[in-house]
Design a protein that fits this description.
single chain, two-stranded antiparallel sheet
Amino acid sequence: MTTQARKHKGSAAAERHFHNAQGAQVKTRDEAFAMQQDTSPEAVSTSAKLELHNGAVTFAMEVKYNPNTYPHVVLGGQITSGICGAPWNITGGFIGETIRLDAKKAGSGTCAETITIVGEFQNPPAYRGTYGFNGAASSFKHSTVYHC
């Protein structure tokens, strides 16, 4: 490599430009990857439609989670149908190699007050596991699938 080529390569490195997640040019790499204070809620959450099947009943669910974490931290959502007293508010959990969803009854009725859904990932994309009411998590078997 000639001296002139080395100088040219070095000057190209000095002319780097950095941009943050919003596309604005910033001065340093650290500024480009720094967490923005004005981050919108949409930037840290997304939703997925899931459907739990146990043979006798189907629960329709919309789960909001943080796509920037893994396993994905569940931020909320609802079980909208298929379960006594629907809707149920999803209060927490995670989605990764395993799934856990915790929900509280928001509707009326004489059903349980809480539900816990757990399972293991399988292909095609679904979770096979169990769920239960009022603190139990292993009363009923299920398969929970993604809907795009």
